[in-house]
Amino acid sequence: MNRKENFTAGFIRENPVFSLYLGICSTLAITTTLNNAIGMGVAVIAVLIMSNVIISLIRNITPNEIRIPVYIVVIATLVKIIQMLIKAYAASLDTALGVFIPLIVVNCIILGRAESFASKNNVFDSALDGLGMGLGYTCSLIVMSVIRQVISTGVLNFTNPFDATQMIFEFRIIPEDYVISVFNQPFGAFVTFALLAAALAGYKNAKTAKAEKKKKAQEAAQAALAKEAK
Amino acid sequence: MYAVLLFAVLGGLYALLYYCNHKTPLPEGCENLKAECSGCKDIGCANHPAHDA
Amino acid sequence: MDIGNLFTIFVTAVLINNVILNQFLGMCPFMGVSKKSSSAIGMGGAVTFVIVAAAIVTYGLYHGVLAPLHIEYMDLITFILVIASLVQLTEMIIKKTSPSLYKALGVYLPLITTNCAVLMVALENIKQGYDFAEMLTYSFAIPIGFTLVLYIFSTIRERLDAAKTPAAFRGNPIALIVAAMMALAFSGLMGLV
Question: What is the ipTM of this complex?
Fold first, then answer.
């Protein structure tokens, strides 16, 4: 498929989180605030682009039998570098995300894209694919964390990750007496994720049903035309 | 210095074990087992049907 | 060796801070391999073996090699390579020695390399500074909690697949709603220790 289709695939059609169910461990755990979502999203985009580029560069010289070990080594090195950078420059993000930054290594999205795309395409296409999938992942995280944060605390805020004392914006959307704080807990995580996944599945079902109806109408019209021609 | 050495040793050990495992044939009667997993469409996971070729 | 402390660690890891329902790790096999109770038990057994073995080896490597040489920053790379190598080695040994064991456990082994729970246990043992006994207790408790939840979930899911659900919810979304109910139920155990 062409570049634009491949780039936009990560948003709705092949959404890695709600449609392919990849990387759900970190999605469920960290989407309690918008800060966490954006921080994790940016980290995953960085690792995804760099790993896609490196794997695409070495795709012709890795022996086919040991390609999975090579990919895992590349991804682990990149994640460790990103983790050290986050620890140094954005310490508040490091305490908030905790063990989930090293767990990016076993995030199924990265190894999956490496194996299915980066090992077969050139560097520019692989980088673009990494960016597209990463942006789709980040948007899904942002949607889920906005819902959870607004319902469970009523405020939507964003602090500067490099300087935790600086608040960039803060809105109170629901008064404090009406918040449902259970959305901060595992129950809320599972329920929000399930509802968003069902919404996406319902949307895709509706689209395929419409496309099928259109196809049937076209076939009926063609059959009628053929009958008339006889 | 030690880090590079450790990295090379572990990486080489993993590659070697992966290759040996790849070459070991399955025991008889086990050729068509599948873990019946349909949880996600992760191509990187070794159980995905895309690897049966 | 404080038995009370070990007991607290055990109960916390199995019930209160459950690896699937509270820490959200190991979700891929949770949603994929939980359609039948027998496969849930098989998966649980394989995960138990890999987690305990990997925890012991990574703990030994960290305190024996990485800390004395002051290269603690290599922990992530070392752990993931050790875990992956261990899975390959285990699969090879099982293939060669016991076909019946391979039928029961071996097919699930490739799923465990990228399982978040194994890497989490290895990293957590270091972060919490456990000594050897505490490390063993924790490493046994996590997969026991995993198997427990997986088994309960698979028994529910066998009935769920026969029920009528709305088309958009069929498959994984309704399974996650059930997991939400389980998480709510387990959170009632929070005051236990």
Answer: 0.87
